[in-house]
Design brief:
Layout lengths: L2 E7 L1 E9 L5 E7 L4 E9 L2 E9 L4 E3 L1 E2 L16 E4 H9 L5 H5 L5 E4 L6 E6 L5 E7 L2 E6 L4 E4 L20 H14 L5 H10 L9 E8 L4 E6 L7 E4 L4 E4 L8 E2 L5 E2 L5
Parallel strand pairs: 8-9
Antiparallel strand pairs: 1-2, 1-13, 2-14, 3-4, 3-19, 4-5, 5-6, 6-10, 7-10, 10-11, 11-12, 14-15, 15-16, 16-17, 17-18
Helix pairs in contact: 3-4
Length: about 270
Amino acid sequence: MCTSFAAYYGRPLYGMNFDFPMVDIKVTIEKSAAVKFICFYIYVFDGYSPLVGMNEHGSFVNLQELHMEGDASQLEECHASTEIDGLQLFADYLNERITMDEIMALDSKTRLTLPENYKIHSLFAAQNGQSTIIEGIKGKLLQQKISGQQQVMTNFAHVLHPDTAKLDLRFVGAERYVTTDRLLKKACNSLDVEQAMSILKSAFQTRGDYPTQCSWVFLPQDQTVYFRLTKNINCIWKISLQNETIENTGDKNAPPIKIGDAGVVVTQLG
């Protein structure tokens, strides 16, 4: 299911909960000619599939499950000649083959394509305060752009329900949306890693088939990511994109782990 946000109160900060049946989660450090980035993958469909990432210039993007609730009948079917692959857009943004301005300029004349078994939407964010939710509704690429200093994404179709004050709380992720949005506004200028983790904990799912497995807090200006696994919630790990290392923040005697070409399966960490 998942909950994520981009917040711009002073220093930019991104957060995400991963809610899913138990799977392995792997982190990699990847490099292209243009940029270096962190990417987390989950093991599904007999292989590792991308989930969330951030590059060294603070560009963030994720993939979350999308539930089509509410009425989309007023939207016409997409007959666009231009197509964009949603998974390729994820990779292109991290690799800086497309800019945030170019993404925000995309409109409903573009068809968003995804593999048949992917029912997902994405939060794109940049450290300059830009963010947007990209969804494919009846094939059309539609956006819900940031309004104010924060943007939250859960699992309902945000482009169909822009007035969140009237949000039907029966929608998947609606209560998590309301809670996260309220707590971010309450924290505002005092928002830091500790508070962000607390806000994400308030959106935990502990029952059903989609329990929260992992929480991330991304600090784009520091090129760092903090995360904790729900199975060991008191242990917070830190990843340095610059140093290409992962370390246990609670164990000063433990040396940092180098993230090699194969990556690190974080769900196997102690």
